[in-house]
Write a structure and sequence with these properties.
The chain has 268 residues and is α/β, with parallel strands linked by helices. The protein has a single domain, classed as Rossmann fold (3-Layer(aba) Sandwich). 44% of the residues lie in helices and 14% in strands. It has a seven-stranded mixed sheet, with helices on both faces. A hairpin with a 7-residue loop joins β3 and β4. α6 runs parallel beside α8. The longest helix is centred in the middle third of the chain and has 25 residues. The radius of gyration is 18 Å and the shape is globular. The structure holds guanosine-5'-diphosphate and magnesium ion. Guanosine-5'-diphosphate binds next to α4.
């Protein structure tokens, strides 16, 4: 796990970092001119907005909990993620983020949420969460008994979800001048520790997998100069079932993801 950062795949458009950095610097000057009590609110509203997408049960809420260190005060966690969850990562100075977790399962609310983050109030970046077919199946409302789905079915569902989401990202990108970034967060790596490299490859541009084909199509549509794409392994599971060193590995991966988000947003 110690060589985690070397697994990070980055395809940089070159100019995006500088452009986003300039936006954040503008925020500092505006903020300093305001009354102190308004400053933190203003700073927060200028935190980069990040959409968190991915199918239900893939681990979006838990990953954002880790990224925000569970200090959120303005988000309401909804079981089954039927509504958009809003969380804020607060950090010194301007280095925070606002995360909008798009519901993965309810068709009507999901479409509205996708409109909101990719059209009405377009985000600065996207974390698309995938889990190598290990999304936790959820029962349909009103049914009883354990839900079940094979890994193959879950991988197919991830692909279908990514097809929809990648189209939305592409149409946002072509409408805007501003560069945007995408991080594919490959989570639940604690469930397949020996396959992480191969799995990251599966989700990476140019690898020839069905998922990668859609990533390549997105890059072609959006234009390489406008969209940077990273693929990062991560795990939100720091708990009981695993050893202390694995918990440390999970934290290191979440930290690496947070560090990359900060870079992409011009925080560093
Ligand atoms: N093993 C493992 N389980 C995870 C991980 N992240 C989330 N989960 C579990 O997967 C399930 C779905 O997670 P959740 O965050 O609610 O998914 P969401 O529907 O995408 O918001 C929950 O039972 C989590 O405990 C992870 O990194 N590893
Ligand atoms: Mg959720």
């Amino acid at each position: 796990m110690s060589q985690t950062p070397s697994r990070i795949r980055t395809i940089l458009p070159g100019s995006s970092r500088a452009a986003l950095g300039a936006t954040v610097a503008g925020g500092v000057l505006t903020g300093l001119a305001s009354a102190p009590e308004r400053m933190s609110r203003l700073f927060r509203s200028r935190f980069p907005m990040v959409a968190v997408t991915g199918m239900t049960g893939v681990g979006k809420s838990q990953l954002v909990d880790r990224l925000t260190r569970r200090t959120s005060d303005d988000g309401v966690a909804e079981v089954g993620s039927a509504v958009m969850e809003r969380r804020t990562r607060r950090s010194p100075r301007l280095q925070g983020f606002r995360f909008l977790v798009v519901p993965g399962d309810n068709a009507a609310t999901r479409l509205g949420a996708l409109d909101e983050v990719f059209h009405d109030e377009p985000v600065d970046g996207v974390i698309h969460v995938v889990a190598n077919g290990y999304a936790t199946p959820r029962r349909a409302a009103g049914t009883t008994g354990a839900a079940s789905a094979t890994r193959e079915e879950q991988l197919a569902a991830e692909l279908e979800d990514w097809t929809i989401t990648s189209h939305r990202i592409a149409s946002m990108a072509v409408r805007r001048d501003k560069p945007i970034w995408l991080v594919v967060a490959v989570t639940k790596t604690d469930l397949y520790p020996d396959d992480v490299d191969a799995v990251v490859d599966y989700y990476s541009p140019g690898s020839g997998s069905p998922f990668a084909a859609r990533v390549d199509a997105l890059r072609a549509l959006a234009g390489g100069a406008k969209l940077s794409i990273d693929v990062l392994p991560v795990s939100s599971q720091s708990g009981d079932r695993r050893s202390a060193s694995s918990a440390k590995g999970a934290s290191a991966m979440v930290d690496a993801l947070a560090a990359r988000l900060a870079q992409l947003s011009g925080h560093v």
